[in-house]
Design a protein that fits this description.
Number of strands: 10
Distance between the termini: 44 Å
Number of domains: 1
CATH superfamily: Aldolase class I
Radius of gyration: 18 Å
CATH architecture: Alpha-Beta Barrel
CATH class: Alpha Beta
Helix content: 40-55%
């Protein structure tokens, strides 16, 4: 299927306190996104740290997001797993709770075959009526959705698209060629948002948009409208911020950045650690270059 997601989607952080999820802060972050034109929120994706959350916490986060934002923006919940049965169960639960779509990362650690990937996505898609987005991030999972494999996955009726974060533009271009007209291509790597959109991508799923949603939305709109001069202007602003947001593993830097904006972002859960002091000046400078008001 095509046309599910267009524009800017934000891979949301999850703010934690020592006692659990900080829902007051989470609500303010959701409002910040919606007020700045974000088209969709990705909840419990990699940036949201679901790997360190209990099932009860994940359910509570989904319930809160639906209550706070349903109808104001698209809500896409992360449900992928290295166990197909668990991914199916999580996808069904997300649908029951009110998700507009599903983001399913490839099975990690198991390192399944390309045929296993097709079977995995077929089972998830068959279990729900929602649009499903495949998420390819081999640097984290050890599994790469090859273009020829994605062409097969794209044939599944409710497969909406692929979030591409392989970092390999030659592969992205071949995937785009093979799935065009069957399902959509989304950028999952902030540094490549502009070229992936220019290659026919319909949306970005952005970490940087936590901090600069208006600029990321502007970039996507400029490319989709064919205004490459404006897209390059915004891309030049955002590239240093993208670099700063990945000096350490995501979401360590972006959580520090949200704190600099005055949000109660908390710190990442162990085994992740707070941003090292040596990386803070780069992050602050990149945020200020984008015109963001650093308050802390």
């Amino acid at each position: 299927m095509t046309g599910f997601l267009k524009g800017a989607a934000t891979a949301m952080i999850t703010p934690f306190t020592a006692d659990g999820v900080n829902f007051g802060a989470f609500g303010k972050m959701i409002d910040y996104q919606i007020e700045n034109g974000t088209d969709a929120l990705i909840i419990l994706g990699t940036t949201g740290e679901p790997a360190t959350m209990t099932e009860e916490e994940k359910i509570a986060v989904m319930q809160f997001a639906v209550k706070h934002a349903k109808g104001r923006t698209k809500l896409i919940f992360g449900t992928g797993s290295n166990c197909t049965a668990k991914a199916v169960e999580a996808s069904k639960r997300a649908e029951e709770l009110g998700a507009d779509g599903i983001l399913a990362v490839t099975p990690y650690y198991n390192k399944c075959t390309q045929g296993g990937l097709v079977a995995y996505y077929r089972e998830i898609c068959s279990a729900v009526h929602l649009p499903v987005i495949a998420y390819n991030v081999p640097s984290r999972t050890g599994v790469n959705i090859l273009p020829e494999t994605m062409a097969k996955i794209a044939e599944i009726p409710n497969m909406a698209g692929i979030k591409e974060a392989s970092g390999n533009m030659a592969q992205v271009m071949e995937t785009a060629r093979l799935i065009r007209g069957k399902c959509d291509l989304y950028s999952g790597e902030d540094a490549l948002n502009l070229p992936i959109l220019a290659a026919g991508g319909t949306a970005v799923i952005s970490v940087v948009a936590n901090l600069a949603p208006k600029l990321v939305k502007g970039l996507t709109s400029a490319v989709l409208d064919g205004d490459l001069a404006e897209a390059n202007r915004l891309g030049d602003l955002l590239l240093p911020l993208s670099k700063a947001c990945f000096t350490e593993v995501n979401p360590i830097p972006v959580k520090a950045g949200m704190a600099l904006l005055g949000f109660e972002a908390g710190i990442p859960r162990a085994p992740l650690t707070p941003l090292e002091e040596g990386h803070l000046p780069q992050l602050r400078a990149a945020m200020e270059l984008c015109g963001l008001e650093v308050k802390a």
